[in-house]
Amino acid sequence: MGPGPHGIEVSWARHQGEVQEAQKLRFDVFATEMGARLPNTLPGHDVDLFDDFCEHLLVRDKATRQVIGTCRVLTPAQAERVGSTHSDTQFDLTRLRGVRERLVEVGRSCVHRDHRQGAVRMALWGGLAGFMERNQLDTLICCASIPMQHEGRHGVVGGGHAAASIWRQLKATHLAPIDFHVRPRLPLPVERLDDTLGVQPPALIRDYLRLGAKVMGPPAWNPDFNAADLPMLMRLRELPARYRKYFLVA
Questions:
Q1: Fewest CB within a 10 Å sphere: which of 80, 127, 134, 235?
Q2: Largest Cα–Cα distance in the chain?
Q3: Cα–Cα distances in angstroms (integers) from residue 23 to residues 18, 142, 175, in the given order
Q4: Is 246 a residue whose pLDDT tops 80?
Q5: What does the pLDDT look like over 199-237, one tens digit per residue?
Q6: Does 198 have pLDDT greater than 80?
Q7: Are 73 and 105 in contact (CB under 8 A)?
């Protein structure tokens, strides 16, 4: 895809070696930083059964060639081959059956801790939006994680209270239409948590909201990743005009 702004370059992985670069970054973020329990398929790498069916988007530092941002994309054809999306393992997605043929799942999104100022995330979004437009796919879903030890502006909030509070906020302001509501298979027990905290969502979720995304339902508890997962939905036609111009106009 070529060079991007701020000394970064965006591309799709072309061979297994590049996929493994993404998997190494994922391990560093999810296991080393967040404490996720990952299978030891390849030491120092985050590998799961969906990886072989996905396209992997990479953002590199042009100077060092290091992969500093990544996410993976599962298309409808590949989801049919593997039998489901990752989101299906976390949520009952029955109500999405009408859009499955035009739906991509984005997952394992992460950015190196030294590059989280925003440019890398926007480069990933640009790559995703272009991919969706080229392939005539108009709906995107993901499980957006809120770490159990969520770091807010007033320090670290643990025990799932931040996730419960973020869900309460977004349910009031960014809830998807009922036709797109989904149910967690292992719900976070939000009714037993303090949902009154004034915490901000993680940066990735704030990006989703700026791009017009909605929350499809309450969070699932993901014990392997020590996180709560919020089911997010984004329709390409609902992308705000300023981002449409930035991402989709050559």
A1: 134
A2: 49
A3: 9, 18, 32
A4: no
A5: 999 989 999 999 999 999 999 999 988 899 999 999 998
A6: yes
A7: yes
Q: What radius of gyration, in Å, describes the C-alpha atoms of the chain?
A: 17
pTM of the model: 0.91
DSSP bridge partners of 233: 141, 214
Buried b (16+ CB within 10 A) or exposed e, 81-90: eeeebbbbeb
Higher pLDDT, 243 or 184: 184
- Which CATH number applies to 73-248? 3.40.630
Q: Which of 235, 228, 181 is nearest to 201 (CA)?
A: 228
pLDDT single digits (tens) 82-102: 999 999 999 999 999 999 999
**Calpha distance 110→22 (Å, rounded):** 9
What are the residues facing 111 on neighbouring strands?
69
